[in-house]
Amino acid sequence: MLKALNINKKRFSLIAGIGSIGLTLILLILLLTNSAIAAFPIAGIGGIVIEADEISGTHLKISTHISSTSEHDDWGQARVELGTANIAGLYLSKKIDLEGALSEYGVKDLDIVITPAPGSIVTGNQLTLGITGLTATYSDFRNLRVDENRSANDPIDVFHLSANSLLLNNPKLNTHLLSAESITIPGLKVKLIINKNDGTTIGGF
Question: What are the residues whose beta carbons fall under 8 Å from the beta carbon of 64, sequence distance 6 or more?
Answer without folding.
Answer: 21, 24, 25, 76, 77, 78, 79, 156, 157, 158, 159
